[in-house]
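Folds vary. Our protein:
___
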Amino acid sequence: MLRTNKAAQLKFLKNVIGSSQICRNNYRRAATGKRTIFDVENIKDFENNVKRCEKPVVVDFHASWCTPCKALAPRVASIVSEQRGGIHLARVDIDELTELALDYQVGSVPSLLVMHNGKVLNRMVGLQTSEYIREWLGRVINTCAPDCSFIKK
């Protein structure tokens, strides 16, 4: 898929995932001007927008052919959006960025990593409910990144 613009990406995601939960608001910009939910384009993009981010970042390692990944994407996007810019979501396609997936020892998809200040705080593998993801993410942020806040729904 060529990444021509945000509107085309959203249309593609809606068709693939078949969910009305993904909307323009999920791809909004935080107060810093950076996108809170974004696709990682290359290793340099990952370095700049994930490893150097001052906010915690949920990294979603996924594949276009993975059905559980398609079901997980809107759940994670919704939870990150609830945080109003306090947490970011970086989506990494393992087929496009295989080297990055290997660097982070991603053996299966979907895999979620929580990173803060360039370090992996925790990881989760497989499809989970929104409630489980929300609770897990809250525990990780409150325990491993106490300087950050997690808004409980």
